[in-house]
Amino acid sequence: MTPPADGFEPAAEPADEPTLDTAADVPAPADDVPAVSVDDVPLESGSDDDHARERALRAGLEDFELDDTDRALLDADWFEDDAAPGRAPLPVLAVVGRPNVGKSTLVNRILGRREAVVEDKPGVTRDRVSYPAEWSGREFTLVDTGGWEVDVAGIESKVAEQAEVAVALADAVLFVVDATVGATSTDERVVELLRRSGKPVVLCANKVDGPSGEADAAYLWALGLGEPHPVSALHGRGTGDLLDAAMKALPTTSAHAELRPEGPRRVALVGRPNVGKSSLLNKIAGAERVVVDETAGTTRDPVDELVLVKGVPYWFVDTAGIRRRVHQTRGADFYASLRTQAAIEKAEVAVVLVDASQPMTEQDTRVISQVVDAGRALVIAYNKWDLMDDDRRPFLEREIEKDLVQVQWAPRVNVSARTGWHTDRLERALETSLDSWDTRIPTGRLNAFLGELVAAHPHPLRGGKQPRILFGTQASTRPPRFVIFATGFIEAGYRRFIERRLRETFGFEGSPIEISVRVREKRRR
User: Fold this and answer.
1) Where does the sequence pass through the membrane (predicted)?
2) Residue partners of 494: CB distance under 8 A and separation at least 6
């Protein structure tokens, strides 16, 4: 047996309280204790000894004060959710236009919530981002794009390429023009590209805040795209008529969208700026799905992409880099950080990317803490491994031992997003973490484990009293959460001791564990 941890010395057990029995043959409850029938206990996989132990401990627990919440927890039924069938591909409506004409504002207006990052300056949106939308009972996919410009270089050219891809994969296009400025030479070049695509186009004359602006919208007839629909995306004026026209242009079934299955697990790629999240997504997807640039903070809106990793489908979510002090950021960077936190909450497992070629920072550990606090499964990926040298390796090992001592349970993968080295190993790490995240321990087996643990290393005496563990159960998975009924407060150090032993016995590699204690007193006779 491993020596006691955290200074837990053996202590005598009071004889007048029920305790966890370590023997395989659990005695039947006493005659004066109301027994719990087998039908009252949820059936779980395990041996007959586990079931007998659970029934005996449940019977002894009835001697203590239990409220309705306790009984609901003890009598909870467990079942596995079946994967939902895939949905038919929805028609795709792409919103395009030159920079700063209000595309993302219009997307938020159509969605009815602030989903896309918006700021009053050009070039905020860079990737093509898909959102599920609905109008008049019809569901469709709305795609927000970055500003479409011609004859540009650098990051602007990559943004324009993503806009062109969005048009190629769309069933209809919503072309947004600033009515207060009128049709520019860039708008006319975009019109030529739209005509060559052959897609139905609905013309939106944005920033028409009142009747006086409708005359400016009328000049857009000259673009040759049909009737311009005067709209104020900021105030919502005219958006209903615009969407009615868009629904007429959209087909009932998509000719370009793929089937969107509901079963694949959601994986969030998170980390501080410029650690290679977007590069890793592009390498795994096998295509230039998101804009990549050496400038830190390129990604702002979370981007979803269905990717097959060794034949297993996953929803990968590329996120904006989490900066050191979010409260000191402004504008688009601030709202991008909020979207990243929301993406972590929606994901099931997070891959935290760390720049292996640079010393670990407080920012890296803060990102990992965000994932653990959100209760999500965790994989740590050390990116840019191709830039590592022999002098850097011993320093990295010391950094891992010092800064990641609290998450030694998380699987680590060394990768290079630029070359694709070892990116195939992510699938095994993701599968391991998700399996642990879903792990369910039968109640009888859990109490047998707790009984052996308490017998070998009892809780230390405090104030002349020793809290006793009466019963333990797993309240939920995703993440695994355990509830322990005890006669007194269980110290945080002893809880950490229980967590370590849980991991040693049952694994839980890659998943956080939550342990809560409910102190219950004996009934007064």
Assistant:
1) none
2) 6, 8, 459, 460
